[in-house]
From TrEMBL:
<dbReference type="InterPro" id="IPR043504">
    <property type="entry name" value="Peptidase_S1_PA_chymotrypsin"/>
</dbReference>
<protein>
    <submittedName>
        <fullName>Uncharacterized protein</fullName>
    </submittedName>
</protein>
<dbReference type="InterPro" id="IPR009003">
    <property type="entry name" value="Peptidase_S1_PA"/>
</dbReference>
Amino acid sequence: MTSADELVRSGIRPVKRRVEDDLLALRGVVGVDIAEKITAGERTGQLGITAYVREKLPLARIAPGEVLPAEVEGVAVDVVADEFVLHRALLAQDAEFPDARGAERHKVVLGGISMGPARSILLCPPDAPRTGEYVIVGTLGALVTDRSGNGQVMGLTTFHAACVDDAWSVGDSMVHPSRADGGGQDDSIGTLCRAALSGSVDGAAALLVTSHPHRASIVDIGPITGTAVATRGAVVRKRGRTTGLTMGLITSTDATLKIDYRDGLGVRVLRNQLRVEVVGGGVMGDYGDSGAVLVDVDNRVVGLYFAGNLSGTAAFANPIDRVLDELDVELIT
């Protein structure tokens, strides 16, 4: 039976869809969602549209045309200061590689391990602290296979961790551990074979080398049992290269984010994303965790982690069914 909360959200949802582009066009707005209104740090119990901004400014400093409305079509609009970033990590090629979980070397390819391109990328400010060659690291989330039934095994991760910029190509080598974690050309586990960066998906898959053993399991979590549709209030876990095993609560399936992918890709808007807030304090994720999958209490995959807020307490993920559809793959269980 549909809850009273969900009935209210279903009424707000079409209003949000009609106005979110106008809200995102305002200076400093980086996201739009449906959430409980917060006043003076206290929950009010009133659901409405939440507009996330990089910084809350006094009205005197905001141009008249840039002021967010207090309500739209009878729905309250709350303004919350937060900022969202992609959670891949990059290190200067000549940097001293830090110790991290990513430095783990696994003889068997499975979910939750460090992975990144073998190639380095030339970056300059503002895309990097200084001009130079950088190496990228993310997380291999799970194993997938082509829907044609050809039996090919691929490692699932995110577009921005595997493809990085507009210079990517099919056949790019992927290594474990990533080069940021001490991996090298001899540590190739596969080659980039498909990718998608769309209005709802940030995903990629690397075809694993046939000689490398693999297992449909996730470090610290165990065997994957299938997929499920994400629902608000569900407890989920993820195992990422940087922060390891963490637990969170799905608080929204309606998040819309505006994120700068830089590297020749520009600003992208991703809609109908999952928002997950950490449970028990600490962080849900951090740089290098991008590509991890979210699993429910039954080890079913519900999402592909790609971004978070600056504090790491909130994470965002693509719904897994959309990822699998756009990459034309099925999860291996």
